[in-house]
Every structure is written in C-alpha cells, then in structure tokens.
Design a protein that fits this description.
Layout lengths: L10 E2 L3 E2 L2 E5 L4 E7 L5 E9 L5 H12 L9 E9 L2 E9 L3 E2 H4 L7 H20 L2 E2 L8 E4 L2 E4 L5 E2 L25 H17 L20 H8 L10 H10 L17 H26 L3 H6 L2 E4 L43 E3 L5 E4 L5 E2 L2 E7 L5 H4 L6 E9 L5 E8 L4 H11 L3 E2 L9 E10 L2 E8 L3
Antiparallel strand pairs: 1-2, 3-4, 4-5, 5-7, 6-7, 8-10, 9-12, 10-11, 13-15, 14-22, 15-17, 16-17, 17-20, 18-19, 18-21, 21-22
C-alpha cells in the first residue's frame, strides 16, 4: 500500500495544500485542504493514481458531477491532474463532511428511528441520481456522510448506467453480484442500500446470497421487507428507490411494526429471561415509586425538574476515506480533549448528576449567583440509551455562553468540544436553552462557562461565571 501520508504539507498545483492525511486505500487517499478566497473554505481533496487509458474519462465524470446540485449529495468543486514526487495523480476537491456512518457502526447499531431518518434523505438523493441516468455505484456506510448536520451521499463515484467503474474502484462487500461482470444498474444501488441497511441495524452484513440467505429475525418492519426486496439476486426483481420509499411511508413513523418473521425455537430461553426481567422491574417500581412520588423536602428545594421534547436524534455520518476527523479543527470536528477541571474555592456553581433520559431536564431553581446574575434554568443534554452505552469513562465538554439582558443565551462557543461530535452537538443544543436572571442596570455583557460530563450513569452539569 502506498505511503500517502508522506505528502502531508505539499501543495497540489500551487493551489490546494495537503493539510492532513485523513485516510486512504491502495487506490486513493483523502487529505484535508482548503479553497482559497476572501474566506478560506475547508474542503477535502481526493487523490488517485492517474491511468493514462482512463484519466480523461474519470476527469469528465467528475466535471459532470460538479454540475449536479442536490441537498443530500456531497458537492464536488474542482478536479484535475497533478504530480507529487514524480507520481502523476488525478485529484477532486469535495465538500468537507464531519462524520460518516462507518465511524458509528463499530460502536453501536442504529435504532429504527435513526435508520428511517437516514433512509429518507438517502432515497431522495438516489431518486435524483437515477433520474439523471446515473448510478451511485459505491453506496456503503463510509459514503453515507454528515455535512453541517445534514445527511449526504458521496458523489465522486457516479457512473452512467451500464458504465464500468474502472480500476480506481476496487471491489466492495456491498457490491451487487452483477457488478463483477461490469453491469452497473440502478438496481445495483438498491442491493448496496439493502446491505447498508442491514449493517446499520445489526452491525453485520448478511451473507451475499440474496433472499436465499435468511436475514436476522430481530430487524423490525418495514426494514425487514425492504432488505429482502433489495437483496434479490435477480436485479429485475429488486425494489426500486420508489418502491422502498413507498414501503417506508406506509409504515408508522413513531413505532415501527414488529417483524413478522418467525422467531426460532432456539431463542425461547430469551422469553424466560425477559419475563424475569419484567418481574424485577415491576418489584423495583413498587419499592422506588413512593420515594419518587414523595421526594424529600431538601431534594425539592434543590431543583424542580420538568421534561422537554428531544431536540435531535444522533448523527450519522466524510467520504469513505475521511475515516478520521482532523484533530486540529476545533468545530465541528474533534477539538482538543479537555483536562479535568480543578476545584476552585471561588466557583459558585451547581453540580447535578442527571440520568441519561430521552428528554432534556431543566431546573427552574436558581442554580448559581454572582455579580453576573444567576442561573435560573439549566438544561441537561438529550442522550439516547444506545449512545449512553458507548461511553467509556467520562466525556467532558466545556463551552462559553454569552447572555443577553433578559437572561437568554444569545451565543455559545466551545472551549473544549471533547472527543465526540455527537455529544458536543447535544451539549450545544442544551446550552442554548439555559436561562439566567435578567441583567441589572449596572451589569455589562455577561458570560458563563458551562461544564458537561457524560458518563454511563448520567450527565453532570456544572456552571461558573466566566472570568473578565
């Protein structure tokens, strides 16, 4: 495999600096770069070895794709040829994406609601692509991206229907069977989507034998039916994008129907385990319930907790070779990891361990007071149970918020965004909902520092007035 990283720091055609190597394969590499202008724009540049017999065709594909415009399709900006250390290469400059689905699946599967949120924009993009007589040809988790909180599909691999991919696209486990013979069809994208769908829900790929291979019984409807239809060996019998959209829209969006696939007898023991768990939970509710309904007076004085609806679901989300977000970019990529904050005697703050729940919690009581006013409502980030289970140790996030005269947060910036863009995003959304006491007549601009510590047991929230 080529040592792509050695080219970090070089400049492509005197225009695109190779800031940081993000990842690659034997056939391609992706670097962080920037597009010059009044304000430099962050982007990525993909390099592939130039094959004289196919270079012109590849460049014409990229030029045609750059003319396409769809909100769920990653934009291509410029393309061309270059030479680095006497190696002739082709390059394409693309929109930067913060995350991709392949970064999430090793840690956890997506929930049915998250898969639905993923499928809807993906189907919209595929409808647009197929309507142009094109095929995506490389649909897989690493090419399902998140750019500025919006799901997008990569676009550097688009081909005309029936066109051969060429040497720059090595075989993939997500490829439809007919691709091996050079026959690339819109139905090939349906196969790849079915494979991606199953991996998103189960964290593993089904055997590449189409419908002859039983799929996991735990996959709920309508996703089970969609996967079966997509993974048929005969391309003519597979679901079209329109068929998939119809199946998705006909199913309830809030509580998908359970799968109709028969549960094997071998899993009967799990019924007994679930029954015992239900009994244990019922007993716990009887013992703990009265305490929850009649909290101690001192606990009532500490805070008054109310629930608000969740503000977002988890992200999915850099082209297939953007496998690692650059650590030098503070937002929205992984910023410098915060160190543990030393306790200070002059800090006037409140630290509350809030259980991770499907809704934010806000405290109406005054949490802290100072010359800059006081906290009147603190909101804990909304974290899903599946995301909670991925936490190892403590994820710490610190941010600075500026407060207007009525006591609302008018601006918030990260001091330390932590190692996870998902938790940073949830902390930001919570921070923007905090409330502070109205400003006094002699009070100038006010700023506070908020601390969020995410643990498997819950979220700790802390605050202090920012230093002048």
């Amino acid at each position: 495999m080529r040592d792509w990283k050695q080219w970090e720091g070089q400049i492509v055609n005197g225009t695109f600096p190779l800031r940081q190597y993000l990842g690659g394969t034997a056939h391609s590499a992706v670097f962080l770069t920037e597009r010059r202008g009044r304000e430099p724009q962050r982007a990525v540049i993909k390099l592939i070895p130039a094959d004289p017999s196919t270079a012109g065709v590849q460049l014409s594909r990229w030029e045609a794709t750059a003319k396409l415009s769809h909100p769920h399709l990653l934009r291509l900006f410029e393309s061309g040829s270059c030479q680095l250390d006497k190696v002739v290469l082709l390059y394409v400059v693309m929109e930067y994406a913060e995350d991709n689905l392949a970064q999430i699946l090793p840690h956890r599967a997506l929930t049915p609601a998250e898969v639905r949120d993923l499928l809807e924009p993906a189907l919209d993009a595929l409808t647009y692509i197929h309507g142009k007589g094109l095929v995506h040809s490389r649909l897989k988790p690493s090419n399902v991206l998140a750019a500025q909180d919006q799901l997008k599909l990569s676009s550097d691999s688009l081909l005309r229907t029936g066109e051969a991919a060429g040497v720059s696209a090595p075989p993939s486990a997500y490829d439809a069977p007919e691709i091996a013979s050079g026959n690339i069809l819109p139905a090939s994208d349906a196969w790849s989507l079915g494979m991606t769908l199953m991996e998103a829900l189960t964290q593993r790929l089904p055997a590449c034998e189409g419908i002859a291979e039983p799929l996991p019984e735990t996959v709920p409807a309508p996703f089970m039916g969609i996967a079966h239809c997509c993974l048929r060996l005969d391309p003519q019998r597979r679901c079209t994008v329109a068929d998939i959209a119809t199946r998705l829209q006909s199913a309830p969006s809030t509580s998908p129907q359970p799968s109709t696939v028969r549960i094997p007898a071998g899993s009967a023991k799990w019924r007994y385990i679930l029954l015992i768990a239900a009994v244990v939970l019922a007993v716990a509710a009887l013992l703990i319930g009265p305490k929850l309904l009649n909290p101690r007076p001192d606990a009532q004085r500490a805070s008054s907790v109310s629930s608000t609806p969740p503000v977002s679901s988890e992200p999915v989300a850099t082209p297939e070779t953007q496998s690692a977000a650059p650590k030098t970019v503070p937002t929205p990529t992984d910023a410098a990891k915060p160190s543990a904050t030393k306790p200070r005697s002059d800090r006037q703050s409140s630290r509350a361990a809030a259980p991770v729940a499907p809704a934010a919690t806000a405290s109406a009581a005054t949490v802290a007071s100072s010359d800059q006013g006081s906290v009147r409502q603190q909101v804990s980030p909304v974290i899903s149970k599946s995301a909670q289970n991925t936490i190892s140790g403590t994820i710490r996030i610190r941010m600075k918020v500026w407060v207007d005269a009525p006591g609302n947060v008018e601006k918030a910036n990260f001091i330390s965004a932590g190692p996870s863009k998902y938790f940073a995003r949830q902390a930001m959304q919570a921070a923007q909902q905090w409330k502070f006491s109205p400003a006094q007549a002699n009070t100038g601009a006010r700023a506070w520092v908020l601390h969020f510590a995410f643990k498997r047991s819950g979220v700790e929230v802390d605050s202090e007035p920012a230093k002048p």
